[in-house]
């Protein structure tokens, strides 16, 4: 269901609300508003959000950041929307500082690498390059996709029993209204 945003403040609030629903499937942490350089940002409230995993698997941590701006919505007269400018979502082992997996898209700060990409901590010496330093191309990655990956593939314990419905709803809404065609 579409929720019109008649003011920049309403667009900002709507943006955070749906990202918060997705985050709540993992944790009680929240997205907080801030600024990075001259850009508006949403940042996960804890430096590293602890993600408990099933059984004896080592826990993970998650960090998330999105840069955005509020712009007039050319699809709906008199309304506003957010326009994502960059994101970084990083998973680590709880006891480790090194990135395990990190999804990046930050064309403003790395114009020589304007495309979305992935970093993975894999040692493959025969490749001749460290994959952790490589920029593995991806499509745009939604935060909901990262949450789904944690819960479905990494055995992270869900905080919400209906997480599949929550992620399905928030991601469907995100894709429907994204300005880049829903190619997350």
Tell me briefly what this model is:
This protein has 184 residues and is an alpha+beta fold.
Structure explained in plain terms:
The chain has helices at residues 8-23, 143-153, 163-177, and strands at 31-36, 39-44, 49-51, 60-72, 80-93, 101-105, 117-120, 136-137. It has one domain. Strands 1, 2, 3, 4, 5, 6, 7 and 8 form an eight-stranded antiparallel beta sheet that branches. Strand 5 (80-93) and strand 6 (101-105) form a beta hairpin. The chain has three helices and eight strands; from the N terminus they run αββββββββαα. It is α+β, with helices and mostly antiparallel strands and 184 residues long. Helix 1 (8-23) packs antiparallel against helix 3 (163-177) and helix 2 runs antiparallel to helix 3. The radius of gyration is 17 Å and the shape is globular. The longest helix is centred in the first third of the chain and has 16 residues, at 8-23.
Number of strands: 8
SSE series:
HEEEEEEEEHH
Number of helices: 3
Tell the overall outline.
globular
Low-confidence stretches: none
Question: In angstroms, what separates the terminal alpha carbons?
Answer: 20 Å
Structural classification? alpha+beta
Main sheet characteristics: 8 strands, antiparallel
């Amino acid at each position: 269901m579409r929720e019109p945003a008649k003011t920049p403040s309403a667009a900002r609030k709507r943006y955070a609300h749906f990202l918060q629903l997705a985050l709540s499937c993992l944790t009680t942490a929240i997205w907080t508003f801030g600024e990075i350089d001259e850009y508006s940002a949403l940042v996960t409230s804890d430096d590293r959000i602890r993600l408990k995993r099933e059984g004896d698997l080592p826990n993970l941590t998650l960090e998330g950041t999105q840069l955005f701006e509020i712009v007039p919505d050319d699809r709906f007269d008199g309304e506003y929307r957010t326009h994502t400018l960059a994101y970084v979502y990083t998973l680590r082992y709880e006891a480790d500082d090194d990135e395990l997996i990190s999804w990046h898209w930050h064309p403003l700060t790395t114009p020589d690498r304007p495309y979305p990409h992935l970093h993975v901590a894999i040692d493959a010496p025969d490749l001749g390059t460290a994959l952790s330093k490589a920029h593995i191309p991806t499509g745009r990655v939604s935060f909901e996709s990262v949450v789904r990956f944690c819960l479905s593939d990494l055995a992270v314990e869900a905080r919400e029993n209906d997480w599949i419905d929550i992620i399905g709803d928030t991601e469907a809404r995100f894709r429907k209204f994204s300005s880049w065609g829903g190619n997350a």
